[in-house]
Amino acid sequence: xxxxxxxxxxxxxxxxxxxxxxxxxxxxxxxxxxxxxxxxxxxxxxxxxxxxxxxxxxxxxxxxxxxxxxxxxxxxxxxxxxxxxxxxxxxxxxxxxxxxxxxxxxxxxxxxxxxxxxxxxxxxxxxxxxxxxxxxxxxxxxxxxxxxxxxxxxxxxxxxxxxxxxxxxxxxxxxxxxxxxxxxxxxxxxxxxxxxxxxxxxxxxxxxxxxxxxxxxxxxxxxxxxxxxxxxxxxxxxxxxxxxxxxxxxxxxxxxxxxxxxxxxxxxxxxxxxxxxxxxxxxxxxxxxxxxxxxxxxxxx
Length: 301
Ligand SMILES: Cc1cc2nc3c(=O)[nH]c(=O)nc-3n(C[C@H](O)[C@H](O)[C@H](O)COP(=O)(O)O)c2cc1C
Fold this sequence. Notes:
The protein is of the alpha/beta class. It folds into two domains: about 5-230, TIM Barrel (Alpha-Beta Barrel), CATH 3.20.20; about 240-300. The protein is built from 14 helices and nine strands. It has helices at about 20-25, 40-45, 50, 70-75, 100, 115-125, 145-155, 175-185, 200-210, 225-230, 240-250, 255-270, 280-285, 290-300, and strands at about 5-10, 30-35, 40, 60-65, 90-95, 130-140, 160-165, 190-195, 215. The chain has an eight-stranded parallel barrel with strand order 1-2-4-5-6-7-8-9, surrounded by five helices. It starts with 6 loop residues before the first strand and ends with a helix. The model has no long low-confidence stretch (mean pLDDT about 95). The site of flavin mononucleotide (FMN) has 22 residues, from loops.
């Protein structure tokens, strides 16, 4: 797969990159957006909550990130066109969460090359669209990311995304910048940089070493404007408008006011981070339990 230009992508974030946030980030200039990780097992079993996560309205390149580790699940899950809203399927091989790894998903895939090879080859065959894989440096001191990446390339994967930390590092410390360079040199498919991208300087470095794009995660929390800022473009609307749009789009997505409020409070805390008296405002938000309280606060922003 060849990208015509350098890609600024919204990284996949469980519990964060809902369809509304993805749409807003694409409005602000994200060229590619990635869903939260979606369980293939749940898709196979027609789980209605998971199927809802396949809603997609953004105008960017649309990527659905899945996780799973059994060939049979991959074959079944791709039978009924569940992923028709998406341009690319990304396989999560980097999630470090104990409940995911214990189940042989996420980062565990890096420690079982034989099974991963089977699963990834099967995905490339079943997906009917380009497949990418997102992974880490490795587990403990087994930094096998180059070997893993070459295996993915051999299986027909279209591009790779590296988050250059080990499973044990989680999100702590800094990424290993040299690792991105080594990876770009080791494979002949595009490499995306995920990890600690916050400034134009960070992006420039990724470009210089030959990455095809960057994925932006934590720096986008409550801050979809980052895509306009990094690309030097005028934002299409204000943060306040972004918050209102985000909330309004989610109103039909959640079944009850209670679940919407509980979910949106998290985003609202990020949105108000840079405002005056942010600490006090966040304490107030923690106590909210109605939509009216959220809307009154947004009015005051
Ligand atoms: C709240 C949160 C949820 C995440 N969920 C996922 C996920 O579902 N799939 C995935 O591949 N990575 C996930 N990540 C990792 C990010 O995609 C990204 O690789 C990592 O945060 C490093 O990039 P950053 O420094 O730009 O945040 C998550 C990160 C955060 C902070």
